[in-house]
Amino acid sequence: MGALCTKQNSLARVASGTITSMSPSTGSAVERPAECPFCKGKVLDTLAKVITESTFWRCLSCNGTWTIASAAASAPKPRR
Question: 41: Cβ–Cβ under 8 A, 6 or more apart, which residues?
Answer without folding.
Answer: 35, 59, 60, 61, 62
